[in-house]
Design a protein that fits this description.
Elements lengths: L5 H9 L5 H13 L1 H39 L10 H37 L5 H26 L11 E11 L3 E4 L7 E7 L5 E10 L4 E6 L13 E2 L9 E6 L6 E9 L9 E5 L10 E4 L3 E7 L3 H4 L2 E5 L1 H13 L18 H8 L3 E8 L1
Parallel strand pairs: 6-11
Antiparallel strand pairs: 1-2, 1-13, 2-5, 3-4, 3-13, 4-5, 7-8, 7-10, 8-9, 9-12, 10-11, 11-12
Helix pairs in contact: 1-3, 2-3
Length: about 375
């Protein structure tokens, strides 16, 4: 049997996709070839482990979505401010168990790595070295980011009733941001946290629960405005199947997801929204949806994500309408929402590095 066909034939055999003649021939080969028989056993174990891993991931995802849904509905409260003490106590109590679990995880990782080396073509040495350099760079970036976060002291009072789980992004470099209105529900005070971990005080400028769009402004004295935003805002409709991506805070670090536009209208035919095919949960609500040119086409509205299995995005033209309405009410107000994108010809990775600086986690202090 050709070495390159071995993984494919093993997988077909285990999945029962061989006909009777192929199956008999393969089993005869197993009897006469101990190495092939061992490969079948190991690959079967590998597939079982991967299936269990997928089930655990799906279970965790469901738990995470349920937690955010209950949190948004006010049925539970976030206790992250007390998390450090609890983690220390848990570590002291379950240190032995955690150590054993970590050992098992390490062994499993080594086993999977070994299996991949058996069932995949040999990777050129230069490719391995390139991968090693990339991993090393990622580790350095993570270390630097953690160091930056630790440099900022939280401005939130100890013991405050804080709800985490929302995203906002800049529409004017002087500190104006937009988000989904339901993210601000019950807010007595609002802070936004930058990717560097800096908390900045903000206030609500506009809020519309019907269209589920809100605008907030950073009022913190430590905020430093930038000259311009790297992305623009698209007024024209977006085509079906167009590639999109989003950045948000479904957890305590910024997360990237990509997908495509699956419908030009939202829930129940809402023409002010898009339906998008993308991985999201309530913590992504309020985050930007961008196209390949680095243009914002909408605002993630993940309020319905868990319930309906799809995600919607409020169209970016709503942002222009809100700004126009506010400027009519206050002639001195001048919010600059630009449609020019300076990252249009950049790679996706380069775009993300520019955009993430202007995407903020929303922290709501409940009344």
């Amino acid at each position: 049997m050709d070495q390159e066909q071995l993984p494919e034939n093993v997988e077909r055999y285990l999945k029962g996709e061989m006909n009777d003649a192929e199956k008999q021939s393969f089993e005869d080969m197993r009897k006469n070839n101990p190495e092939l028989d061992q490969a079948v056993v190991e690959y079967h174990y590998f597939l079982d482990e991967m299936q269990r891993y997928g089930e655990v991931r799906r279970f965790k995802s469901n738990l995470y979505d349920t937690h955010h849904t209950l949190q948004e509905n006010g049925q539970i409260r976030d206790l992250q401010l007390k998390a450090t003490t609890r983690i220390v106590n848990m570590w002291n109590k379950y240190r032995k168990v955690i150590t054993v679990a970590a050992s098992i995880a390490g062994i499993t990782a080594l086993f999977i790595s070994g299996m991949m080396s058996i069932f995949t073509p040999k990777t050129p040495y230069r490719d391995i070295e390139e991968l090693r350099r990339k991993v090393s760079n990622l580790e350095k970036q993570s270390t630097n980011q953690l160091a930056e976060i630790n440099n900022f002291k939280s401005k939130i009072e100890p013991g405050a009733d804080v709800r985490f789980g929302g995203t906002s992004f800049m529409i004017d470099p002087r500190g104006y941001l937009v988000t989904s209105a339901h993210v601000l529900k019950g807010a007595k005070k609002i802070y936004v946290q930058s990717i560097q971990g800096q908390d900045l005080l903000a206030e609500i400028v506009y809020e519309d629960l019907i269209s589920d769009i809100a605008m907030i402004k950073i009022t913190d004295i430590d905020f430093t405005p930038t000259k311009q935003l790297p992305y623009g805002f698209r007024l024209a409709p977006t085509d079906l199947s167009e590639s999109i991506y989003t950045l948000g805070y479904p957890k305590n670090e910024i997360v990237y997801n990509e997908g495509y536009l699956s419908a030009k209208s939202g829930l129940d035919g809402d023409t002010m929204s898009y339906q998008i095919s993308i991985s999201a949960n309530p913590g992504n609500s309020g985050g930007p949806v961008l196209n390949k040119n680095g243009e914002v086409i909408g605002i993630v509205n993940a309020r319905q994500a868990s319930a309906s299995g799809v995600v919607f995005a409020t169209k970016s033209k709503n942002i222009f309408q809100v700004v126009h309405k506010l400027e009519e009410e206050d002639n001195d107000l001048n919010i600059n929402v630009s449609n020019a994108s300076s990252i249009k010809n950049m790679t996706r990775g380069q775009q993300v590095k520019k955009v993430q600086r202007h995407v903020y986690m929303v922290k709501v202090i409940l009344g």
